[in-house]
Amino acid sequence: MSPRLEDLPLREDLRGMTPYGAPQAALPVALNVNENTHPVPGEVADDILDSIARALRDVNRYPDREFTTLREGFADYLGHGLARDQIWAGNGSNEVLQHVLQAFAGPGRTAMGFSPTYSMYPLLTRGVGATWLAGDRGHDYVLTPDSAAAQVADADPDVVFLCAPNNPTGTPLPIEVIEAVYAASRGIVVVDEAYAEFAPRDERSALTLLPGRERLVVSRTMSKAFAFAGARVGYLAADPAIVDALRLVRLPYHLSALTQAAATAALRHASTMLAMVDDIVAQRDRISATLSALGFQPFESWTNFVLFSGVDDPAATWQGLCDRGVLIRDVGIPHSLRVTAGTEEETTAFLDALASIGSGS
Ligand SMILES: *Cc1c(COP(=O)(O)O)cnc(C)c1O
């Protein structure tokens, strides 16, 4: 008989933990993990494939450890006068966040976020042997500068995560909150802008706060707006000294030559890759409006998903949708469910299925 987890000489601090586990069911309409459900356009896919094919010819050699070309690509894409020595990247922004924690948290140290927030922050924190501290949000999950700064000053964490806009609630994060938290902290302040491309166009990014703030980190991902979740590419912008610190903890050659080639090629087509963002935002707003009409309470969202409350029995509604071929997410918030905005057809399938189940209270 194979040993059970409890029988293994597992680290004490990992006992009782559960791994990240969004269900991966093969349903016709999958709106559960905030992917971009639009496939990569054909002509872009062809160019990416050519780049990967060229990289493959040299795959007997290790890749550029400093992924210089890719960092230049990200610096150009982000703008704001950023240079490549201010850019870091990894296999998804999850890995980038893990690098930050490995360098700046670890045993005896703490990382903090404001619940409910991205479920990977506590998992990544515990994974590096640090302690997770959960702060609170106000009414409708909104974070105010005074409250956030007071909580950070009180907890004095080594790393603070500000998810802007927040997952799983969709809540925008005012730039004043970032300024206040930075001023109240002595540790690293990570602003996770995984969904930044879905925010209103005229909104300021935390990237504008980087000059003069050497403890500030702004992370991004190609997984959401860029329709590149399966390629696993995330990145951040920060002071060059922070980027140097991350080199201490990354595995050598952590970004494969194929990943670097694919991401660099995709960045050359940024505007085509991002062409679906407006469509997705329109579907998101349609979801919110229809949910209200059905008697649910959607929360304001600047992302590609909507959290809604007023669900009498989330587990039953989730199952009812599953039975109708639609997968969404129960994020464990009472009387609430979260749905990703899909294509128009997928969104219609979700809204019709939900209407047929009913029970908005
Ligand atoms: C999806 C998501 C990420 C990114 O994940 P990748 O590892 O880049 O795929 C990061 N932060 C938040 C808040 C997310 O929702």
Order of helices and strands: EHHEHEHEHEHEEEHHHHEEHEEH
CATH fold title of the largest domain: Aspartate Aminotransferase, domain 2
Main-sheet strand order equals 2-8-7-6-5-3-4
| Beta-strand fraction estimate | 5-15%
What is the rounded distance between the termini? 49 Å
Instruction: Specify the helix fraction band.
Output: 25-40%
* Count of alpha and pi helical runs: 12
- Unreliable parts: none
Overall tally of domains: 2
Bound molecules: pyridoxal-5'-phosphate
User: In the CATH classification, which architecture of the largest domain applies?
Assistant: 3-Layer(aba) Sandwich
Within CATH, the superfamily of the largest domain carries the name Type I PLP-dependent aspartate aminotransferase-like (Major domain)
The CATH class of the largest domain is Alpha Beta
- The residue-averaged pLDDT reads 95
User: How many strand elements?
Assistant: 12
Write the layout of secondary structure elements.
Layout: E1 29-30, H1 42-56, H2 68-78, E2 87-90, H3 93-104, E3 110-115, H4 120-127, E4 131-136, H5 145-155, E5 159-163, H6 175-184, E6 188-192, E7 216-221, E8 234-238, H7 240-247, H8 257-268, H9 270-273, H10 277-293, E9 297-298, E10 305-309, H11 314-323, E11 326-327, E12 336-340, H12 344-357
Parallel strand pairs: 1-11, 3-4, 3-5, 5-6, 6-7
Antiparallel strand pairs: 2-8, 7-8, 9-10, 10-12
Helix pairs in contact: 1-8, 2-8, 3-4, 5-6
Bound molecules: pyridoxal-5'-phosphate (PLP).
